[in-house]
């Protein structure tokens, strides 16, 4: 087992569909010990269930909107694993729903932008501050989840695109800042997956349909494929990789105009 004796703190489990669930699954499969976190009492029950499934050591509150909550969480991590941790997984993203619907310029507000950046981007740095000492003891690493909307425009992703661009920049700055302590920092840019964070997004179904038409693999990706890529980045096999944004998107990001798009009637009527 690749990660026998290794220890990871996993944030962002909200259901069995969560990307964080699949990452925990891969880590657990390889023998790692886990601490799982939840943001509030509403989600706690779900994470308790996950903790049972993954034989997790502890379940801790960690609301990334609060410095006190993050601090208290890592005090408990330190009390349990005082001689270090091997990794922290950040699988958290949030913007108020009204920000993710319609014309970017009209939909985006100061408050919506602040919340999106606070919860989806700054929180990664906030976790790094508290995890740093424990990670340094074992030359551990951090991993976050991002999306293509940081680089290219996708309908309705809006202010989350700004927040993900900021998150990706933080990966590079954190990697440089903590590299001297042997701490690596990476991200996975995942293709669209139906999770709680995708539910309620208008036209998400359509996003999935179009993605599978454009992507070189001609299909969408699964949570398990993200879990396995995460396992690699968090493992000793990736000891030379830091500051990296790795795409797990069936190749979608590499294509500008696909053969499929050339043949779509709405785009090129009467001239196939
Ligand atoms: P999800 O809804 O299962 O996970 C989102 C998590 O964020 C939830 O567990 C939620 O509890 C947590 N969260 C929200 N506010 C929080 C707070 N204040 N403190 C602590 N946790 C908080 O959805 P998911 O798709 O698994 O999302 C995980 C990550 O993957 C997100 O960063 C998301 O942007 C990213 N991502 C998702 C997709 C996709 O299509 N689903 C694609 C690429 C990247
Ligand atoms: O990063 C994400 C999820 C972003 C997200 C989703 C929600 C829904 C519930 C952030 N905040 C909220 N707030 C809520 O209240 N993804 C990559 C998935 C996603 O979200 C989209 C997408 C895709 C893909 C939004 C619009 C268009 C495409």
Got a strand count? 7
Low-confidence sequence ranges: none
What can be said about the biggest beta sheet? Answer: 7 strands, parallel
Overall spatial form: globular
Structural class: alpha/beta
H/E topology pattern? EHEHEHEHHEHEHHEH
Q: Report the total helices.
A: 9
Please give the structural blueprint:
Layout: E1 7-10, H1 19-29, E2 33-38, H2 41-53, E3 58-61, H3 67-80, E4 87-90, H4 104-107, H5 110-137, E5 141-146, H6 159-178, E6 184-190, H7 204-214, H8 223-234, E7 245-248, H9 259-262
Parallel strand pairs: 1-2, 1-4, 2-3, 4-5, 5-6, 6-7
This protein binds nicotinamide-adenine-dinucleotide (NAD) and ligand 0WE.
Structure keywords:
9 helices, seven-stranded parallel sheet, binds nicotinamide-adenine-dinucleotide, binds ligand 0WE, globular, alpha/beta, 272 residues
What does this structure look like?
With 272 residues, the chain is α/β, with parallel strands linked by helices. It has nine helices and seven strands, in the order βαβαβαβααβαβααβα. The chain has helices at 19-29, 41-53, 67-80, 104-107, 110-137, 159-178, 204-214, 223-234, 259-262, and strands at 7-10, 33-38, 58-61, 87-90, 141-146, 184-190, 245-248. A seven-stranded parallel sheet has the order 3-2-1-4-5-6-7, with helices on both faces. Strand 2, helix 2 and strand 3 form a beta-alpha-beta unit. The radius of gyration is 19 Å and the shape is globular. It starts with 6 loop residues before the first strand and ends in a 10-residue tail after the last helix. The relative contact order is 0.14. The model has no long low-confidence stretch (mean pLDDT 96).
């Amino acid at each position: 087992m690749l990660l026998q004796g290794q220890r990871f703190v996993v944030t962002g489990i909200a259901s069995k569909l969560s990307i964080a669930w699949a990452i925990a699954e891969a880590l657990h499969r390889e023998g790692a010990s886990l601490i799982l976190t939840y943001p509030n009492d509403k989600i706690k029950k779900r994470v308790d269930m996950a903790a049972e499934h993954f034989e997790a050591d502890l379940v801790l509150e960690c609301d990334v909107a609060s410095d006190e909550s993050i601090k208290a969480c890592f005090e408990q991590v330190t009390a349990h694993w005082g001689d270090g941790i091997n990794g922290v997984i950040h699988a958290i993203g949030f913007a108020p729903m009204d920000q993710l619907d319609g014309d970017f310029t009209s939909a985006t507000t100061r408050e919506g932008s602040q919340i999106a950046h606070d919860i989806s981007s700054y929180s990664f740095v906030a976790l790094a501050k508290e995890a740093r000492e424990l990670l340094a003891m074992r030359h551990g690493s951090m991993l976050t989840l991002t999306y293509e909307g940081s680089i290219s425009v996708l309908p309705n992703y809006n202010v989350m695109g700004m927040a993900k661009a900021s998150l990706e920049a933080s990966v590079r700055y954190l990697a440089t800042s903590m590299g001297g302590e042997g701490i690596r920092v990476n991200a996975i840019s995942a293709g669209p997956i139906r999770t709680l964070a995708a539910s309620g997004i208008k036209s998400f179904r359509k996003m999935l349909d179009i993605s599978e038409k454009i992507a070189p693999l001609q299909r969408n990706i699964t949570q398990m494929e993200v879990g396995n890529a995460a396992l690699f980045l968090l493992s000793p096999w990736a000891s030379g990789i830091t500051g990296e944004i790795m795409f797990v998107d069936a190749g979608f990001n590499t294509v500008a105009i696909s053969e499929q798009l050339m043949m779509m009637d709405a785009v090129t009527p009467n001239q196939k």
